[in-house]
Amino acid sequence: MTDESGPKGDPVAASGGHRAVFLSYASEDTEVAARICNTLREAGVEVWFDQNELRGGAAWDAAIRRQIKTCALFVPVISRNSRARVEGYFRLEWKLAVDRSQMIAAEKPFLLPAVIDGTSESDARVPDKFHEVQWMWLRGGETPLAFVERVSHLLTLGEDVPAAAAGSLGSVRHGGPIRASPELARRAIWPAGAAAQSTAPAQGAASEKSIAVLPFVDMSQNKDQEYFTDGLTEELIGLLTRVPGLRIPARTSCFYFKGKQATIAEIAQALNVAHVLEGSVRKSGNTIRIAVQLIRVETGYQLWSQTHDRTLVDIFKVQDEIAASVVQSLSATLLSAPPPGRAASLDSDAYQLYLRGHFHWNRRSPEEFRKAVRFFEQAIAREPNYALAFTGLADCYSLLPIYDRTARATETMPQAKTAILRALAIDDELSQAHASLGLILEIFDFDWTGAEREYQRAVELSPNSPVPHQWYGELLVNTGRFDEGLAEGRLAVELDPLSQVANLALGIQLNSARRYTEAVGQLQKTLELGRTFADTNYLLFEAYANKGMYSEAVAAYARQKALDGVPASEVAAFHDAFAQDSWPGFLKARIQSLEAQGPAAADELASLYARLGDLDSAFAWLEKCYADRSARLTHLKIDARYDSLRADPRFADLLRRVGLGS
User: Fold this and answer.
1) By C-alpha distance, which of 194, 179, 40, 205 is closest to 111?
2) 427 exposed, middle or buried (CB, 10 Å; 0-12, 13-18, 19+)?
3) Which residues are registered as beta bridge partners of 277?
């Protein structure tokens, strides 16, 4: 309402304040704040906002303080201007509002920060208390109907709340739009410039029995609990995935929005869900507060909320209690089926070590895999019968050779198999472990029958988990059962629509099935999810090459090389080779470049020589792949890159040795 220059005239004469909105802003944002004020007033909302001549003085200052003490809703206008101002009267207003909020019951909303430009929440330079409540994004001061309705609704919340509804910490509130604890929602419900009704998913109305679990927010002062908040989120996703009749996007899709300025409606539209579950974790000393709430997207209303204050004597028990309670509450709200049973409690230190390992594993790089291995091993040292830790260890060893060409599968895969067999000996009902064993049997042992059996068992145990479907789909495609395999691949994407891994895998499957146009489209979609993800451009290169679109193939290859940090002169050399000698010239230049780097890219060199028609060199490199137990040999039966080799008896012999021929 004021800036550092002083007040803007006498405050508007007000009622008792029980239905008034106080707008606080920097002077540079006066015009935008005025638009917000006028829109609210036209809707019948009382707004305390004045732009008279600057006057100042003790009486005026006292009036401002009185209004902040009596208003119903305090709306700080946040922008790059407020961020730039390290001193200003509006900052005193913010402090006074925060002080008052400490005395207001959790059921009563009071603070509603409104961002009017691209200022990020993490960089806004606002009081910590502002980060604990829901923000609205009003680009340029646009005030859609949804915003006006939101303000009007918040002005009525918390009035005459029955004692039973207010509850105590840990209680659950059902059946109405009662506001959650301020520890909860921190995103705007609706996007700026659009009403809630405009955000219906393009793929059709979301099922009523659908929910996305958003990454819990680490509200701790030191911001050092991310591994725990991520682990809690994943635990809830895993539990809800097992509830019959409930559709829930997988972990990768839910985490896609982490750190992004997306509204709940935008997230729900992208994931095609009717409900969103979100929460926060705040650690202070030896205590931890975890708050959760379930939001119905169509209305923006909260169906229920829960807050837990506990000590950190046993984090695992706290997490287990909250997860079970959330599933119970959700089942009561949306479903008739009971929640799944829970596993026995574990040593809390071992559990934290597992969460740290899983946190690094999810980052998917050779360095992160190696960090994860250390944490999983420490977890197992504390809890020798920790099946999930053994599974995590196995997955690190299995995927390391795929992500790091210098890692030798002949060294890591036996370690992976030992770990996963131990996991299954402890818990044979663990879907992740069966899927992991299937992967090992397929890409290292070339035991296709055994791998298929394990994938099927994993799907049976957890039909809504995308990874078993993805891996099973790859096996089916690699053995020539294209329609079945693509159905599994598409189901994996449906279950985890924003997963770059699942989308990339489907693109690979389409390319392997020789549906090149579809493959190109799918791989381009993967690039839209993340233009620097893995080797997507390399795989797009393969699809273009198989389709005979050599110019586009070279362009895709050059893009990936540039992303990999290859000097511009080397990237230009590939374009020059193609310009001088067309496709064969490019292939030769690529071979020369790879051979100068050493034998790590044996499978790639084999495919290039096969495309050139140099059969002897192609087979020599394929034998190197076989000796190294390269996972890329699993594509041999259907891979178009090797079509020139198929009439040679050496190819049939190699197919037999990898279990794909008679």
Assistant:
1) 179
2) middle
3) 213, 294
Nearest Cα residue to 63 out of 74, 71, 73, 53: 71
Which residue bears the tokens 């949306």? 334
SS (H, E, C) 123-142: HCCCCHHHHHCCCEECHHHC
Q: 């019959």: which residue's tokens?
A: 244
The helix/strand/coil state of 178 is: coil
Cα angle, residue 148 at apex, residues 25 and 307 outer, rounded to 5°: 85
Q: 3-class SS at 323? A: helix
Give yes or no for a contact between 483 and 606, defined as CB atoms under 8 angstroms apart.
no
Give the C-alpha separation, 625 to 604, whole Å: 10
Measured over all CA atoms, what is the biggest interatomic distance in the chain, rounded to whole angstroms? Answer: 98
Among 240, 229, 236, 227, CA closest to 186: 229
- Under a CB-based contact definition with an 8 Å cutoff, are residues 188 and 135 in contact? yes
* The pLDDT of residue 349: 81
pLDDT digits (tens, 9 = 90+) for 442-457: 999 999 999 999 999 9
Let me know: does 470 contact 501? Beta carbons within 8 Å: yes
- Residue 638 DSSP code: T
Overall pTM > 0.90 = no
Burial 47-64 (b: 16+ CB within 10 A, else e): bbbeeeeeeeeeebeebb
d(CA 318, CA 534): 37
Q: What are the distances in angstroms from CA 281 to CA 189, 216, 277, 316, 346? A: 20, 7, 14, 14, 21
Q: Is 146 exposed, middle or buried (0-12, 13-18, 19+ CB in 10 A)?
A: buried
Kindly report the backbone phi and psi dihedral angles of residue 304, in degrees, each rounded to the nearest multiple of 5, phi listed first: -165, 165
Size of the chain in residues: 662
**In terms of C-beta density within 10 A (0-12 exposed, 13-18 middle, 19 or more buried), how is residue 463 classed?**
middle
What is the distance between the terminal CA atoms of the chain, rounded to a whole angstrom? 81
Of 21, 68, 17, 67, nearest in space to 45 by CA:
21
Cβ(308)–Cβ(321) under 8 Å?
yes
Question: Which of the residues in the chain have pLDDT under 50?
Answer: 1-14, 52-55, 158-202
Query: Which pLDDT value is given to residue 211?
Result: 87
Look at residue 149 and give its three-state secondary structure.
helix
Alpha-carbon distance of 512 to 147, in angstroms, equals 49
Rounded-to-integer distance, Cα 298 and Cα 304, Å = 15
- The b/e string for 101-139 (b: 16+ C-beta within 10 A; e otherwise) is beeeebbbbbbbbbbbbebebeebebbebbbbbbbbbbe
The set of residues, in sequence order, having a beta carbon less than 8 Å from that of 108 and lying 6+ positions away, is 157, 158, 159, 161, 179
pLDDT digits (tens, 9 = 90+) for 220-265: 777 777 888 888 888 788 777 777 777 888 888 888 888 776 777 8
pLDDT at site 534: 65
What pLDDT was estimated at residue 552? Answer: 93
